[in-house]
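Whiteboard transcription, Tuesday session. T.W. wrote the structure tokens on the left side:
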């Protein structure tokens, strides 16, 4: 659950990466959640990075705010689902790991 909420804790990509590397052989369920959270945080970072050139056209700031709000909502939904033992797949997430 903490992997999904890691952006709120200020450790974003780092916590899911550490949990995934440590627990991938011990607990498949924890590894799945950590991998999903890691993919989500990487995707959000890439989406926000893609908005940087749009700041010059004055649409970048609203898009980054929308991405941030969506990331917060999806992270809370994923944390609630993972606390209940349900696998959650984030929408619009690049599966990189």
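and on the right, the sequence the group agreed on:
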């Amino acid at each position: 659950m903490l992997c999904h909420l890691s952006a709120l804790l200020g450790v974003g990509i780092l916590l899911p990466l550490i949990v995934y590397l440590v627990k991938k052989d011990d607990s498949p369920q924890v590894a799945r959640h950590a991998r999903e959270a890691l993919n989500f945080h990487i995707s959000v970072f890439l989406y926000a990075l893609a908005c940087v050139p749009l700041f010059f056209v004055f649409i970048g700031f609203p898009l980054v705010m929308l991405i941030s709000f969506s990331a917060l909502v999806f992270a809370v939904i994923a944390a609630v689902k993972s606390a209940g033992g349900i696998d959650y797949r984030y929408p619009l997430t690049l599966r990189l790991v």
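Someone added at the bottom: The mean pLDDT is 94.
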